[in-house]
Amino acid sequence: MSELNEKGNQLIALLADGEFHSGEKIGELLGVSRTSVNNYIKALQEIGLDIYKVTGKGYCSAVPLTLLNQQIIQQVSGVDNVHVEQILESTNQYLLDKLPNISNGQTCIAEYQAAGRGRRGREWVSPFASHLYFSMYWRLEAGIEKASGLSLLVGIATVNALEKLGLHGVGLKWPNDLYYQGKKLAGILIELNAQASDVCHSVIGIGINVRMPEQQGKLIDQPWIDLNNISTQPVDRNQLSGLLIKELRMLLSDYEEKGLVPFLDRWFELDYFLNKQVNLIVADNVQTGICRGINEQGALLLEIDNEIKPYIGGEISLRLANN
Fold first, then answer.
1. What's the CATH code, domain 70-268?
2. DSSP secondary structure, 88-112, as one string
3. What are phi and psi of 7, to 5 degrees?
4. CATH for 273-320?
5. What is the pLDDT of residues 83-102, one digit of tens each?
6. Which residues pair with 287 in a beta bridge?
7. Which of 37-51, 71-85, 160-174, 267-281 is predicted least confidently?
8. Domain-by-domain residue ranges, the chain?
9. Mean pLDDT for the stretch of residues 201-220
């Protein structure tokens, strides 16, 4: 399914209230048979919507849905180059396909990604209207060398936005994950398009677990958590999107001018693995040591036998030593 047709949109709007609606009522609204209603329901379930069917009552969404609203996001962020889609292959790819003819800070947010991806080619589970699938384009005038600490800066901006929503206790795992109480909350995927000695076009992808449907959660092969398990009230994705855009634009401008140095203290405050024994997996080799944070270039500092060594770039994974 590359897009929802008009009837699919009508059905989502009807079910968004979280109340039961009879198959007969849905059929009348859509102008289709009961068999077609059932097919539409199955199609929505296939993109990750939790929909209950109860004999004699009809269908309902497991939870009320608040859909993305481009106008609200623009109002909160204070900028108008925000694009909201229902279904895309990938928000990152949407922006990459438009390079270089897009404005700095152009943002794309989707309700669903048919082919969302994470670091090292992993699939990012993307159920409809459940999480935040967010990408922003940023032009680095200083070139590709400036990209070395970009994911760390983006992590800080994301935590800042969450804290502005009253969500505290989120930490950062080098180089591109957000953790809460030892479980993954969000991931960052930055994709670059650059030539040597030229500007660097970066697409910053951020995926945040907001409300994980039960069946979709079973597809994830690592401990995870979502914002609705952290917050005492439902998280508004429109508010979160707008705050994230504001925070990113502000911090990215400072980063281009000053680098990571002004943000080092904040990273050390948020570093989930700081001063813990870790395994650093580099290709097929495992280095065990103590995480000592990062340096000014964004390299991980690992203490081994009382000597601190920096590690950056390539296929590197970080794990707690006892995991």
1. 3.30.930.10
2. ES-HHHHHHTTTTSS-TT-EEEEEE
3. -70, -40
4. 2.30.30.100
5. 999 888 899 999 999 998 89
6. 280
7. 37-51
8. 6-61, 70-268, 273-320
9. 83
Task: Name the fold adopted by 6-61.
Answer: Arc Repressor Mutant, subunit A (1.10.10)
92 labelled ligand-binding: yes
Cα→Cα distances 64→60, 130, 292, Å? 9, 11, 44
Same fold, 6-61 and 273-320: no
pLDDT in tens, 156-205: 999 999 999 999 999 999 999 999 999 999 999 999 998 777 889 999 99
Q: Is 55 annotated as a binding residue?
A: no
Q: Which residues are catalytic?
A: 119, 184, 319
In the block, tokens 């699938």 appear at 133
Q: What percent of the chain has pLDDT over 90?
A: 63
Q: Where are the beta strands (DSSP E) in the chain?
A: 51-54, 58-61, 82-88, 107-113, 132-140, 171-173, 177-180, 183-194, 200-208, 277-282, 285-294, 300-304, 307-311, 316-320
- C-alpha angle 11/12/14, rounded to 5°? 65
Q: Is 75 flagged in the annotation as binding? A: no
Distance CA 322, CA 191 (A): 31
Residue 120 labeled ligand binder = no
At 197, the amino acid letter reads S
